[in-house]
Design goal:
Elements: H1 7-18, H2 24-37, H3 42-49, H4 53-66, H5 85-97, H6 104-115, H7 121-130, H8 139-146
Helix pairs in contact: 1-2, 3-4, 6-7
């Protein structure tokens, strides 16, 4: 398959390829189109980008079918979060209000039983650590709550 680009399309694809805020996969797809328009064969393009030939062909077909929009990934790609912000706020409230010190396994069980959110203890620990939360109540936190 050979792609024929107008001067305006070539310019747009060159700008996309050099832009800083564009995903790398989109830049690579623009590069495929530019190389194809210059006369390189799909096998050469695939070898140069370390892609499968079928991926190069798919990119060319997406361009023909969707145009510029076909260079970006479709929405909804990737895994969906298994928890929401309200679930994390709930856990933080439990840690702040209850005098009991929780470990990550206990918090994961509590989240599963009370909110029907299944996260492993390790994943939950990483999420809360990212939010800069510590597990359990330290003695100084208990003293502050009692005063």
């Amino acid at each position: 398959m050979k792609v024929f680009l107008t001067e305006e399309e070539k310019l747009t694809l060159e700008e996309l390829r050099k832009a800083k805020d564009i995903p790398q996969r989109t830049k690579d797809r623009a590069q495929v189109l530019l190389l194809n328009a210059r006369g390189l064969k799909n096998e050469q393009i695939a070898k140069g980008l370390n892609w499968a030939i079928s991926t190069v062909r798919q990119t060319l077909h997406r361009w023909e079918k969707l145009g510029l929009v076909g260079l970006w990934d479709a929405p909804g790609r990737g895994g969906k979060p298994r928890y929401s912000e309200s679930d994390l706020i709930y856990l933080e409230n439990c840690l702040a209000q209850e005098p009991k010190a929780y470990n990550s396994h206990e918090l994961a069980k509590k989240l599963a039983s009370e909110r029907q959110v299944n996260l492993s203890a390790d994943r939950l620990r990483r999420v809360l650590k990212k939010r800069q939360r510590k597990f359990g109540n330290t003695p100084t936190q208990l003293q502050k709550q009692n005063n």
